[in-house]
């Protein structure tokens, strides 16, 4: 038989009963116990999220940069690269055959740095390519300095991997200008922009590849990067849309609001309020429905609700990962961009007209002004390993946060599968197979 609970009304309350002696009763009351339990489980969940799940997500509330820059997958790739380069240095006749003419001309500029990453860049770019993938690209490496022989890699044996390597090929007047720029760091933005256009033009003039890439010299390529790039290029061609570049590197750090995926993250204030309100409402409803529940749920319903809904909300925005070709109109950094040949001369003109600046911002501005679409391969195919020597301990670094978590074994299998899928897609041999 259910015992009916008598609810004290205000008149019936005997205030004399509230003495210090009843303090213990309050402490052990369900309301306080629930609050304490909520507090500890909430703190436990926060700790777990911060240390085990979401710590790599730079936008999340749980970001923890203590180990975010430790090399994981990149270290694995550096080992692949070292083995591959040792082999290549012995093998003097490794120049590639371009059966159909290259599909992608890749310009790389290198300068002497405090830490030299060029061997890793070239090594990871070439290691594990299939011969067909290798044949689809032409790599032009320029030592962008008036004294290229000062570069530690200037006469390395493995340079015979690339199709061209050497210093600037410029007129004496241009060389004079470059020397002036090199002499003082204040010209760095002028030289940066000029070098970028030099690489674009070098590929444009010396190669007939329909796609032109510019890569920096302090990056690491993931296995399968070339097959994914070719696949994305084939998809872009199918879409017949005007596009400015295909991005192989981006950092989650600089991602702004993406309407499609980040709705709740962007409006987290509203979402938080709604979550807390809904939970509190449900609890109050329950309390209204049944006397038994009524005794259990005290006035802390809304606090409890708020705590738990706030835990769900800071779940980071980039935890929804895409794969493959993705439109990405607002992203950062020029570590690895692929342009269609048809855009290259206009980009060069735009950059040279403005003379100086940060090349990545200038390219974004150019695209924004003309309203041209930009794309990326998701997840990143390139890591900016050079950030380790240039970062200043800030959260806003040019780093691919997920790259280090890649599984080398899985990527290898995926690469083999894609390479087996057929012949490399080439725009020249029309009528033949389109897909990789
Ligand atoms: C690149 O060269 C440096 C210095 O010689 C060496 O320590 C490093 O292991 C090399 N990296 C690769 C990937 O070969
Ligand atoms: C490269 O050649 C040298 C000397 O001929 C030899 O000692 C070395 O083992 C070779 N390395 C590889 C990776 O084949
Ligand atoms: C340098 O440029 C000139 C003129 O554009 C060209 O004829 C020559 O072949 C280039 N040299 C190299 C090594 O590319």
Description:
By secondary structure, this protein is of the alpha/beta class. It folds into 2 domains: 26-55 and 262-318, no CATH class; 73-257 and 332-420, Spore Coat Polysaccharide Biosynthesis Protein SpsA, Chain A. It is 44% helix and 11% strand. The chain has 16 helices and 10 strands. An 8-stranded mixed beta sheet has the order 3-2-1-4-8-6-9-7, sandwiched between helices. A two-stranded antiparallel sheet has the order 5-10. Helix 3 (73-90) crosses helix 4. Mean pLDDT is 82; it is low at 428-436. It binds 2-acetamido-2-deoxy-beta-D-glucopyranose (3 copies). One 2-acetamido-2-deoxy-beta-D-glucopyranose binds at residues 78, 81-82, 85, 119-120, 123. One of its GO terms (cellular component) is Golgi membrane. The chain crosses the membrane at residues 21-42.
Termini, distance in Å?
74 Å
Question: CATH superfamily name of the largest domain?
Answer: Spore Coat Polysaccharide Biosynthesis Protein SpsA, Chain A
How many beta-strand runs? 10
Low-pLDDT segments: 428-436
Bound molecule kinds, no repeats: 2-acetamido-2-deoxy-beta-D-glucopyranose
CATH fold-level topology of the largest domain: Spore Coat Polysaccharide Biosynthesis Protein SpsA, Chain A
| Global morphology | elongated
Mean pLDDT: 82
State the secondary-structure class: alpha/beta
Question: Percent range for helical residues?
Answer: 40-55%
Strand order of the largest sheet: 3-2-1-4-8-6-9-7
Q: What is the CATH architecture term of the largest domain?
A: Alpha-Beta Complex
Major pleated sheet: 8 strands, mixed
The arrangement of helices and strands along the chain is: HHHEHHEEHHEEHEHHHHEEHHEEHH
> Which class of the largest domain in CATH terms?
Alpha Beta
Transmembrane segments: 21-42
GO molecular function: glycosyltransferase activity
Keywords: Membrane, Transmembrane, Transmembrane helix
InterPro entries: PGAP4
